[in-house]
Design brief:
Blueprint: H1 3-19, H2 41-47, H3 74-77, E1 95-100, E2 107-111, E3 117-121, E4 125-126, E5 131-136, E6 140-148, E7 154-162
Antiparallel strand pairs: 1-2, 2-3, 4-5, 5-6, 6-7
Length: 169
């Protein structure tokens, strides 16, 4: 029942809005407005050949119609099922939680972002860049990543993992 008066009010307001427009009447003595067209021949001559026109090249640029938050990077989010668990994350994403160092074969316990613990020893591959555990001491673990630059130069990047303040006991 409240819908009928709302509909009637909406129709009346729309009719009132149509009737309020101004009508322009040109009398007998009124002069027609003069319209000037822009002369583009000088601008076209100054621009040069049509071959000098600018063309947009979208290569290497992001799509301006995609939102910032729904963008997914296929390289960083793709995890292959056959990838070993220790190579699914970057080295800096792992947390060092324990070390057994006073033995013939020292071991360390690394926890990934999914809160899964992994036991590593010397020579174990860790991280997406094929980092290798090269040292286990009582204070931390060293993972060495080796990769080549575009120039063919071999770069060795040692990443040290130490206990966080909350894990020292």
């Amino acid at each position: 029942m409240s819908r009928v008066p709302a509909t009637i009010v909406a129709v009346l307001l729309s009719l009132l809005g149509v009737g309020c427009g101004e009508s322009v009447s040109t009398g007998e003595g009124a002069a027609a407005p003069q319209v000037r067209k822009a002369d583009l021949s000088g601008a076209a001559a100054a621009a040069g050949d049509p071959a000098d026109e600018y063309f947009y090249n979208p290569a290497g640029k992001r799509d301006p119609f995609l939102g910032f938050f729904n963008r997914k990077d296929p390289i960083s989010t793709a995890i292959d099922i056959n990838t070993p668990p220790l190579q699914r994350w970057d080295v800096d994403k792992y947390a060092l939680t324990g070390i057994i160092w006073n033995t013939q074969s020292p071991r360390a316990l690394l926890v990934d972002p999914e809160a899964t613990g992994h036991s590593v020893r010397l020579g174990t591959y860790v991280g997406r860049n094929w980092g290798k555990v090269t040292a286990i001491t009582e204070t931390g673990v060293v993972v060495t990543e080796e990769y080549q630059t575009l120039d063919g130069e071999l770069v060795v990047n040692p990443v040290s993992m130490v206990f966080s303040a909350g894990n020292m006991k």
